[in-house]
Write a structure and sequence with these properties.
The radius of gyration is 22 Å and the shape is globular. 34% of the residues lie in helices and 23% in strands. A 6-stranded parallel β-sheet has the order 2-1-3-4-5-6, sandwiched between helices. A 5-stranded mixed barrel has the order 17-18-19-21-20. The chain is α/β, with parallel strands linked by helices. The structure holds 5'-deoxyadenosine (5AD) and iron/sulfur cluster (SF4). Residues 50-51, 162-163, 263, 265, 303, 305, 334, 336-337, 339 line the site of 5'-deoxyadenosine. Iron/sulfur cluster binds at residues 11-12, 14-15, 48-50, 81-82, 164-165, 168-169.
């Protein structure tokens, strides 16, 4: 029986969640998860298209998998996810690719795999505005049954001018809140410790039936109340839709983590407008001030990129000054990569030279490291509740976990284990990690 599948995931948390959905769909169809790529009968690569680099990584991965296929002639290779959607049928021209499926086509994977065994190469990149994969409980790897994801919205309607996502994931849709609550209850029954609500823009969640009109603040409060023993996280928030109502809900529900990932992208109004972000620097900073005043111990993180079309040194300075003003605990930083088919690719010139992009990115990273170090050092002496995730990379004597602010903490294990919640007093800090010791207080 050729039934062992190996799923490899690139890109965002939504892709991680999707891979678990795919594992579940295949499990029902009698496929089993292979823990090792070399033992697999079917390799599925869940891809990302957000920057050109992400796609380059997949092409070189396919070259590597070619060597596995040389040893196992019956191996089936499938490409799914955003790059599958973007490139579509053309990916089948690669000598080892047997099938291609976009983000709305995962229910057809069993069929696509069976067809591959009959030497038929198929591509399914149809969009389905009704597809939310509701009711499919994601399948986790054996050692990963502590943190769960629920995709509450899929797709995106925002059309930021640089972004490929509306083209790869289609229009936005929200899952039925009853299905979401059922999944939450199942995770709670299965003793999950943490749950992340996912969406390209969770703040625009909206579902209406005869009984209720549910927006994101009411959904997350419902989730928090139905899972009082779980930590609740959410990502990603679009600043234009981050309401005071949501901030109040986070502030008053103890099990909703005090962490907001609020991608700013740029600190310059001119660039924000060219990006079609629909907010200004002033609006963004007002959101941050309201958050800080209502939740003083909030952890703040962001996505920021430099070198977008038209970005001058002055615009870039505005980004640096915003970073200093907000004082992010952490940021994901990139340089602009033009994506075919987007508004920016069609109508704006990619006019910042590559060496300038690189140099700006380095300056941005340098500044954020300084800010993160300052913020982490300010935690020394404080005590945090930490959810243990596993052994630290460096030593089996040390564990690591996260504070609700989403900061990584390393500490001596003292017989604690994955899934435990411990109180840790911070003794030392670098720009990336806190170090601490278990306290009894
Ligand atoms: N180039 C560089 N970075 C991008 N992002 C999205 N599109 C691009 C692009 N074309 C970044 C944004 C987004 C994160 C997921 O990736 O910061 O929030
Ligand atoms: Fe990559 Fe964006 Fe697709 Fe996630 S949604 S996989 S980040 S392109």
């Amino acid at each position: 029986m050729n039934n062992k599948i190996y799923i490899e995931t690139y890109g965002c948390q939504m892709n991680v969640a999707d891979s678990e959905t795919v594992a579940s769909i295949l499990d029902v169809n009698n496929y089993k998860i292979a823990s090792e790529i070399n033992n697999a009968d079917v390799i599925i690569i869940n891809t990302c298209s957000v920057r050109d680099n992400a796609e380059k990584k997949i092409w070189s991965r396919l070259d590597f998998i070619k060597s596995i296929k040389r040893k196992n002639k019956n191996l089936i290779v499938g490409i799914i996810g955003c790059m599958a959607q973007r490139i579509g049928e053309k990916m089948l021209e690669h000598p080892i690719v047997d099938f291609v499926a976009g983000p709305d086509a995962y229910r057809y994977l069993p069929e696509l795999i069976s067809n591959s065994y009959l030497n038929n190469k198929f591509c399914n990149t149809d969009f389905n505005i009704n597809e939310t994969y509701s009711g499919i409980l994601q399948k986790k790897k054996d050692n990963e049954n502590m943190s769960g994801f629920i995709a509450i919205t899929r797709g995106c309607n925002n059309f930021c001018s640089y972004c490929i996502v509306p083209y790869t994931r289609g229009r936005e849709r929200s899952a039925n809140y009853n299905d979401i609550i059922n999944e939450v209850k199942k995770l709670q029954e299965n003793k999950f410790k943490e749950l992340t609500l996912l969406g390209q823009n969770v703040n625009s969640y909206y579902f209406e039936d005869n009984l209720n009109k549910v927006n994101f603040p009411s959904l997350i409060e419902m989730v928090a109340k139905n899972a009082p023993e779980m930590r609740i996280r959410f990502t990603t928030s679009h600043p234009k839709d981050l309401s005071d109502e949501l901030i109040d809900v986070i502030a008053r529900n103890k099990n909703i983590c005090n962490h907001i990932h609020l991608p700013v992208q740029s600190g310059s109004n001119k660039i924000l407008e060219r990006m079609n972000r629909k907010y200004t620097r002033e609006w963004y900073l007002n959101r941050i001030n309201v958050i800080k005043s209502k939740i003083p111990d909030i952890g703040l993180s962001s996505d920021i990129f430099c070198g977008f079309s038209g970005e001058t040194e002055e615009d870039f300075q505005q980004t640096l000054s915003l970073m200093e003003e907000v004082c992010y605990d952490m940021a994901f930083m990139f340089k602009y990569s033009e994506r075919p088919g987007t508004y920016a690719a069609k109508s704006l010139i990619d006019d910042v030279p590559e060496d300038v992009k690189k140099e700006r990115l380095n300056r941005m990273i340098h500044l954020q490291n300084k800010i993160s170090l300052k913020k982490n050092k300010a935690d020394i002496g404080k005590t945090f509740e930490v959810l243990v995730e596993g052994f630290s990379k460096r030593s089996k004597e040390m564990l690591f976990g996260r504070t609700e602010q989403n900061k990584v903490v390393v500490f001596p294990s003292l017989n604690k284990k994955q899934g435990d919640t411990v109180m840790i007093t911070i003794k030392d800090a670098s720009s990336a990690t806190l170090k601490g010791e278990i306290t009894n207080s």
